[in-house]
Design goal:
The structure is a homodimer. Chain A is of the alpha/beta class. The first copy, chain A, folds into 2 domains: 346 residues, Amidase signature (AS) domain (Amidase signature (AS) enzymes); 47 residues, no CATH class. In chain A, 36% of the residues lie in helices and 17% in strands. In chain A, α2 runs antiparallel to α3, α5 packs parallel to α6 and α9 crosses α12. At the A-B interface, α4, α9, α10 and α12 of A face α4, α9, α10 and α12 of B.
């Protein structure tokens, strides 16, 4: 592995020391189980927030450490669409002078550049919006600030959160893609440039980069995080999610924004976790090595005390990915009407093709696709019957090489229309030492189940 | 009635003549059944589009007539937040030089000022956004242009489409409110300033002004018109709708934007329309005169051959308005986080109160409210069983006086969470000669039923 990242798990021992006049923390790495020195930017968001609240760390010092990491690595990784160190530090210093405002007080957050910010340009990954300055913060950005968070900068998105890639490289191996569309968020969090970042998913844009970059990606139930100020692509599927390095960190953001709190006691799962292992209808799309790794992970969870039973999705699910394509393309070409009708030549060839294809779908086809989605949604209760969560692959394999594009969303595409909460946990390592994640899914609205089981899996398989 | 408006129904005979060097049309008024002279701005959108397509009328002449009407009446009615005659005429002249682009070719449309326009300021009804110029057109605006429509200007919205009123007066009697939040759209269409305008509904913001202003208001099934570029208030309920003077005109817009076409044959209803007359759980909120008028309308429809049967909503519906309040306030205060946390003092006292109240709702209460909505949604199949549509009051009575606010949304509030298509038809006249509408509702996705039955009711009761 080209780069070994050291970070603190949510339950890691953290204690402050002062070396060379700089704050630093001892953190336990996930690989070696021993305490080593690490900088504040490697802390989990929860540890950082706790340290700030208890006076062991300042927001300024934390942001400085993140900026130092960015300074060191950004030329290589290219995670940021916009960053202004003075601006971020000013916000951090202001936090240090305030009474704690909320759960995120003092913690820096990266914002995917399809999400509006009133004080930073927002380009939606498109040259059409070069230097575009929105008039107001998206709801989630204003809520982060309301909760005391610091907006560190804007992370690279593919073009309008579709497929045309930005500059970002996979921090584990820069010859590879970080995945997309939430490319910069995935890479920045993985590279310890920031502990938290927003991503979005319309097809597989949040889970895939989390998997490729080896971090946690939590895509909450549909509409859990308010979408005001998100550049809309598909009104039916666009979902805001959180990238972090621990499951609890991602849950912290949703607690701050949506008043959704996982009870502390729920993190300790009572009894045997009941896990439905689902190869999914697209299992054959995964490479053999990944199939073996996922199977082995399921088996190891059994060894850790989980009841793991293989489930097969009903045949109706075979048509779900196609239904997603119909619905999302029908919506893409409408949501992007202004760009399509005024700036067609400034869109990538890929996106032009998608929009043109989208204009070909009829309302009748769109509605028929929705009927398929509704049918499958109705079947989910039976699928989940008796199980706490579904365990499924996140991706077909390791991150492809950069020039091959942002990878395939195929292992998310058929889940996304159902709006289920899902959490990628980074627990596998592919044949070329790149990370591979698996995802835990729970019924719509049962985010606590998805999160607590993902956390359990993360802890058990990261040992 | 202070003002008698003369307009063409969608099926009106229209023929062009040239009087005094000005184009004009003979149209049959809905009141007298005789042909009289009327200006192009009084034409239905369908008649205008047909006349333009067949070379009998130009878009320029039509827009001129609308602008002349605005020039004559705007000081009294105050329907427009922004209008630039030169800009509208330039767009109209461009249309006259093009091959017909689509269903709306040459037809002017008013845009509620919570919907972004790239070439006109958009203030969302709030001083916070004075002179704000969005970077791009909302999807629906770009789609109108793509279909050949002309954006005439921006119509007045209440503050962020909530309750604090703008300047608009009811064109029938300027001592009264036009309703809200789609105040300007309702008034402008009713006053023949424009044949079509977009409104939005989150509680009762589209149906109510249509009822008070005596026009058709079609609120399609949830998500029928793409919401990209609409200033978001409640992601779960915000719905774009169309104001027009005929039912078919409103359907034309949705056909152009959403590829939703009511088959021509469906407008002639085969057999007896089966109408469920629903007083609703808030019947007592309607004044006695309105109750009598609605009952009489239901009875008259029976006389016209409909099978009209009274239905009572299950008791669960009694809690639906409250569930709507919980959900929408929970979402308002999040969607407007930027404004709430940065410009609280620039919000109206009313909205400040709503947002503060919204911050008090817990996630648990929010989810419990959704369960009530889901329960009622599940009951709708039984409610509609055997009936084509529901007929229900649109409002408690005539438009209140201007200084009393924009009126009560109570007769829409419990329907809105269900996302059903509904159409206000202006068929009643209150004790002080102000219009009162009734609404026709159909099951989710069955917009054709709502439209064709509304058209039937409109024709039968407008005679």
């Amino acid at each position: 592995m080209a780069l070994r990242m050291v970070w603190a798990l949510g339950d890691a021992f953290a204690d402050m020391c002062n070396g060379d006049g700089k704050y630093a923390f001892y953190v336990r790495t996930r690989e070696h189980g021993r305490d080593i020195m690490a900088d504040p930017n490697t802390l989990s968001a929860i540890d950082a927030a706790t340290a700030i609240r208890t006076g062991q760390l300042t927001s300024e010092r934390l942001v400085e450490a993140c900026l130092a990491r960015i300074d060191e690595r950004e030329n290589t990784v290219g995670a940021w669409a916009y960053i202004n160190p003075d601006q971020a530090l000013t916000e951090a210093r202001a936090r240090d002078k305030q009474e704690p405002k909320g759960l995120l007080h003092g913690v820096p957050v990266g914002i995917k550049d399809v999400i509006d910010t009133a004080d930073m340009p927002t380009e939606y990954g498109s040259p059409i919006y070069k230097d575009h300055q929105p008039a107001c913060d998206a709801a989630c950005v204003a809520q982060v600030r309301e909760s005391g968070g610091v907006i560190l900068g804007k992370t690279v998105s593919t073009e309008f959160a579709t497929r045309y890639a930005g500059k970002t490289r996979n921090p584990h191996n820069t010859d590879h893609t970080p995945g997309g569309s939430s490319s910069g968020s995935g890479a920045a969090v993985a590279d310890c440039m920031v502990p938290l970042a927003f991503g979005t998913q319309t097809t597989g844009s949040h889970i895939r980069p989390a998997s490729y970059c080896g971090i946690v990606g939590y895509k909450p139930s549909f509409n859990m995080i308010d979408r005001a100020g998100l550049k809309q692509l598909s009104q039916s599927f666009d979902t805001l999610g959180v990238h972090g390095r621990t499951v609890k960190d991602t849950a912290l953001v949703v607690a701050a924004l949506s008043d959704f709190h996982v009870p502390e006691s729920a993190w300790e799962i009572a009894g045997r976790p009941k896990i439905a292992f689902c190869r999914t209808p697209v299992w054959d799309e995964a490479d053999a090595k990944t199939q073996a790794l996922v199977e082995e992970a399921a088996s190891r969870l059994g060894g850790h005390g989980a009841e793991v039973v293989e489930v097969t999705l009903p045949a109706a699910f075979d048509e779900l990915a196609e239904a997603h394509t119909t619905i999302s393309e029908f919506e893409f070409c409408r949501a992007l009407s202004y760009e399509r009708t005024n700036f067609l030549e400034m869109l990538s060839e890929h996106l032009r093709g998608r929009l043109e294809h989208g204009m070909g779908w009829t309302r009748t086809e769109y509605e028929a696709a929705w009927q398929k989605v509704a049918h499958c949604a109705g079947l989910m209760e039976d699928v989940f019957n008796g199980y706490d969560v579904i365990l499924a692959p996140s991706v077909p394999g390791e991150a492809p090489r950069f020039e091959e594009g942002t990878g395939s969303p195929i292992f998310s595409q058929f889940w996304t229309p159902l709006g289920l909460p899902c959490v990628n946990v980074p627990v596998l390592e592919g044949p070329t030492d790149l990370p591979i994640g698996i995802q835990l899914l729970a019924p719509l609205g049962e985010d606590a189940r998805a999160l607590t089981h993902a956390d359990w899996v993360h802890r058990k398989l990261s040992g």
